[in-house]
Automatic annotation (TrEMBL):
InterPro entries: PaaX-like_central, PaaX-like_N, PaaX_C, PaaX_trns_reg, WH-like_DNA-bd_sf, WH_DNA-bd_sf. Residues 1-22 have a biased composition (Low complexity). PANTHER family: PHENYLACETIC ACID REGULATOR-RELATED TRANSCRIPTIONAL REPRESSOR (PTHR30319), TRANSCRIPTIONAL REPRESSOR PAAX (PTHR30319:SF1). Residues 29-95 form the Transcriptional repressor PaaX-like N-terminal domain. This is Transcriptional regulator. Residues 117-177 form the Transcriptional repressor PaaX-like central Cas2-like domain. It comes from Pseudonocardia humida. Residues 1-26 are annotated as: Disordered. Residues 236-281 form the Transcriptional repressor PaaX-like C-terminal domain. It holds the Pfam family PaaX. The lineage of its organism: Bacteria, Bacillati, Actinomycetota, Actinomycetes, Pseudonocardiales.
Length: 294
């Protein structure tokens, strides 16, 4: 199985589009589709979704039809989507592996406190992957970043809380890396400057700005427009924040650290959007069944 960090990385050949307000949102079509599945489709007993629904959704988010179709085809080739044909219309659903990946990510997305870990607990990880295995190195780094790790120095990573590293690597299909790594539960000794190593391992100022961008964008509420488009964009924006912030301990940061505020904004906007998004999806599915698009 692939990991969320790897599959949600920017896919080649597809430009990010613009949001419903016309402003660039910087999300690739694949990231938007995963947000759509995780935010609206997952948990509902729905049939495969016609391609017309995806094309209309992505079009409203500034993605051209050709790019939308190319993304659906690419995700199918990568084993992320299953394609079935009903008459002239192509229908898609997540593969079991992709469904499991979205289900796991959704636990973090929906958590009321996604940035909190037991105080004083850390996980140290050391690994070595040959320089010649660049693709593997990229996958390992993407996986560790999504799991909350930051790099202290070459080959040495640290994450807040206690991370089940074996499960993280195995779930990502990186079993071979397990034999190239060692990891330990750790706690800092009294003279360790925790604030200093946090800033060495993570770009704290950039993480703060990522929270700030999210809060500024969504503070006033989900806004008007297509609820499916808005909830998809909300989820993609929130996943970007979750990827940036591993849950740095608040007591080692400034008093106005914005993580709790951005989590509250996400929960409020998602709750406001979900009922209308569910209704809109039901209408989309009904209309797509009567007007097939190949």
């Amino acid at each position: 199985m692939q990991d969320w960090g790897a599959v949600d990385a920017a896919e080649p050949g597809a430009d990010p589009g613009a949001g419903p307000d016309g402003q660039p949102h910087g999300h690739r079509p694949q990231a938007l589709l995963f947000s759509f599945f995780g935010g609206v489709v997952r948990g509902r007993d729905l049939p495969p979704v016609p391609s017309a629904v995806f094309i209309r959704l992505l079009s409203g988010l500034g993605v051209a039809e050709a790019a939308a179709r190319a993304t659906l085809a690419r995700m199918t080739r990568r084993g992320l989507l299953e394609r079935t044909q009903v008459g002239r219309a192509a229908h898609y659903r997540l593969t079991p592996d992709a469904e499991a990946l979205v289900r796991k990510a959704s636990l973090r997305v929906a958590s009321p406190a996604p940035f909190e870990h037991p105080d004083g607990e850390w996980t140290l990880l050391s690994y070595s992957v040959p320089e010649s295995r660049r693709d593997l190195r990229h996958r390992v780094r993407a996986t560790l970043t999504w799991a909350g790790f930051g790099g202290l120095r070459d080959g040495v990573w640290i994450a807040p809380g206690t991370v089940d590293v074996a499960a993280v690597l195995n779930d990502a299909g990186l079993d071979e890396v397990t034999g190239l790594a060692e990891w330990f539960a750790a706690s800092p000794m009294p003279d360790v400057r925790v604030q200093a190593f946090i800033r060495r391992a993570w770009p704290v100022d950039q993480i703060r700005e990522r929270h700030g961008e999210f809060i500024r964008t969504w503070w006033a509420g989900p806004g008007a427009g297509d609820p499916l488009g808005r909830i998809t964009l909300l989820g993609a924006d929130w996943l970007r924040v979750l990827r940036a912030d591993p849950g740095l301990p608040a007591r080692h940061l400034s008093a106005d650290w914005p993580a709790a505020q951005s989590a509250a904004v996400y929960r409020r906007c998602y709750s406001d959007l979900l009922p209308a998004a569910d209704r809109a999806l039901d209408l989309e599915l009904g209309s797509s069944m009567t007007s097939p698009t190949p």
